[in-house]
Amino acid sequence: MLAFVIQRVAQSALVLLIVGLVAFSMFRFVGDPIDNMLGQERTQADIERLRTTLGLDQPFPVQYYKFLANAAQGNFGVSYRQGRPVSDILMERAPATLELAAVSGFLAISIGIGLGVFTAIRRDGFAANAIMSISLIGVSLPTFLIGILLIYLFSVELGWLPSFGRGDTVQLGGWSTGFLTKSGLLALILPSITLGLYQMTLIMRLVRSEMLEVLRQDYIRFARARGLRERTVNFRHALKNTLVPVITVTGLQLGSIIAFAIITETVFQWPGVGLLFINAIQFVDIPVMAAYLMLISVMFVGINLIVDLLYFTIDPRLRVDRTKAH
Amino acid sequence: MVDTSPPQALKTEERSTFRVAMDSDFVYRFKNSPVAIVATAVVMLMVLCAVFAPLIAPHNPFDPSSLNLMNGFSAPMTPNAFTGDTFWLGTDDQGRDVFSTILYGMRISLFVGAAAVLFAMVLGVTLGLIAGYVGGWTETIIMRIADVQLTFPAILVAMLIFGVAKGITPVEYRDQMAIWVLIIAIGLSDWVQFARVVRGATLVEKNKEYVQAARLIGRGSGAIMLRHILPNVLSPVLVIATISLALAIIAEATLSFLGVGAPPTQPSLGTLIRIGQGFLFSGEWWILLFPAVTLLVLALSVNLLGDWLRDALNPRLR
């Protein structure tokens, strides 16, 4: 167990180091930072001085180490475009993305598992078949088209919901939240559905196929034979045993919710880090790109690690198999 | 077809390659799957339309001399109020025929998608073969890189590569290079699937007798990989390529829609949707709707074809 944990943690650390190297190389090789910072009227002496103050005359490994040390403290330099520290900009934008991701994740998990169980139990029912067919179209629809479709339906035609932005937000300490105002909550509805829909269909299809598998097992038949209520059998016995793969996939999907937020945020002009990243790419704002890359990889690697460890704790069979294998 | 007599079990004469192919299990399955036939027909039709776009399109939407600004915002199938011209699918703000822009856009979408998949396939298959056949440190390095990349969603990887490449190319070449950068970005984000599958298959194949025999008669590693192992691992590659094509088309559309893909001077379907979204609120729905439907039909057909191919080529499902 301990060896496994150490191995996984070491692997995660290695991934982060590699991503850090990529981010650092972006700084180093995409455009010349000296060029970016000094204006047209510079002298050779200016260039030399700035090179020394920025530490660009030092060997590559030393620079890389310094970059990592700075990044670990949340210091990613100054945005080329906005002229403000990148960490400030990120902190300001993060709540919008995290709130959106949390709501979509919640929607995806709760509705996804619910519908998955429903379609598995009523396998041949009309409603279950209809849901399955609709979900197939949902998987083929690109995220941005779903967003545009929802905007057209609920904002342009019906005029019920806002089509862009976060609505009014309330400042709680350094955190701006949209949960506390009516317009903030209304503004959350369309983006969170757009973002969560794909993950929801994935979870639903997974839960359904796992449930169908489990419902065929003998212990389910015996549970029924013992006269347990249908609800107990379905939820206590069947659903519980489908949860291992569901948790793994769901965990990994949570990571992609943050990544796909980029698309949703662009469609809805949601002022989060994803929109910031897209603008950074369009204007080749390297510090913002590097910081976003580091931030999201910490998140991804963290989620992967947690899922791996969780998998290990949930399923006792894995532990036995591993010790046997070694 | 000259030979129409039913094939007999004890027929000894040579049958043409065409006949053998037509009698194969694969073709039989294809003929009996309406979904596969319709999907293939749709994809073929769209590819033909894209290839012959200059011949089919009523006018070249990117040749300013063939445009008339007075034609702007014509609704579909209704004569324009000023010029009296009628456009099947309407026109956009600059009087460009939407049908023509879709044909040209589809051309770019399909080209980028196919080229990106081809790039990913060549890269992934090569690395997968090497990893599986050579093993050792080479394998560890290649597969670790693959694992790390798999941690991140492909679309994010593509965006990053696009952003970095954009930073490297000089400003005056950015628009010209955008299509090629896009192909490389999507291709690089997608090679992992190929490499993993090919490596797995190669590990199985390389211990079989025919490979040992080839080694014994002294063929070099390169020849064994290319001439002996590669043909035997190709069928899963074909399936992944088809499914990847649908993903690549959607990825290209997404990137272009986000404004980090095909430039407005060479619009793909994604760029057209991005442009059309701006007119949604003013009621010109056709500028958005038709490119969106085209993209959807294209992606769905390729997807269905890929699903069918996967089932048809998977011996375990027979």
CATH class of chain B: Mainly Alpha
By DSSP, the count of extended strands of chain B is: 0
H and E string of chain A: HHHHHHHEEHHHHHH
- CATH level-1 class of the largest domain in chain A: Mainly Alpha
Please summarize the sheet with the most strands of chain B: none
Class by alpha and beta content of chain B: mainly alpha
- Pair with the biggest interface: A-B, 41 and 33 residues
Shape of chain A: globular
Mean pLDDT of chain A: 78
**Annotated CATH homologous superfamily of the largest domain in chain A:** MetI-like
**What is the typical, i.e. mean, pLDDT of chain B?**
80
Individual helix count of chain B: 13
Termini gap of chain A = 11 Å
Low-confidence stretches of chain B: none
Task: Explain what this protein looks like in three dimensions.
The complex is a heterodimer of chains A (326) and B (318). Chain A is mostly helical and 326 residues long. Chain A folds into 2 domains: 1-73; 87-319, Orthogonal Bundle (MetI-like fold), CATH 1.10.3720.10. Helices cover 78% and strands 2% of the residues of chain A. Chain A is built from 13 helices and 2 strands, in the order H-H-H-H-H-H-H-E-E-H-H-H-H-H-H. Chain A has helices at residues 2-29, 33-37, 44-54, 60-72, 86-121, 126-140, 143-157, 182-215, 218-225, 230-268, 273-282, 286-314, 316-325, and strands at residues 170-172, 175-177. Chain A has a two-stranded antiparallel sheet. In chain A, helix 7 packs across helix 8 (182-215) and helix 10 (230-268) packs parallel to helix 11. Chain A is globular, with a radius of gyration of 25 Å. The model of chain A has no long low-confidence stretch (mean pLDDT 78). By secondary structure, chain B is mostly helical. Chain B has a single domain, classed as MetI-like (MetI-like fold). Chain B is 68% helix and 0% strand. Chain B has helices at residues 17-22, 25-31, 34-51, 53-56, 98-134, 136-151, 154-168, 174-188, 191-205, 209-216, 221-258, 269-277, 286-313. In chain B, helix 5 runs antiparallel to helix 6 (136-151) and helix 5 (98-134) packs parallel to helix 9. Chain B starts with 16 loop residues before the first helix and ends in a 5-residue tail after the last helix. At the A-B interface, helix 1, helix 7, helix 10, helix 11 and helix 12 of A face helix 7, helix 11 and helix 13 of B. Chain B: Residues 106-306 form the ABC transmembrane type-1 domain. Chain B: This is ABC transporter permease. Chain B: Belongs to the binding-protein-dependent transport system permease family. Chain B: It comes from Sulfitobacter sabulilitoris. Chain B: Keywords: Cell membrane, Membrane, Transmembrane, Transmembrane helix, Transport. Chain A: Its main location: membrane.
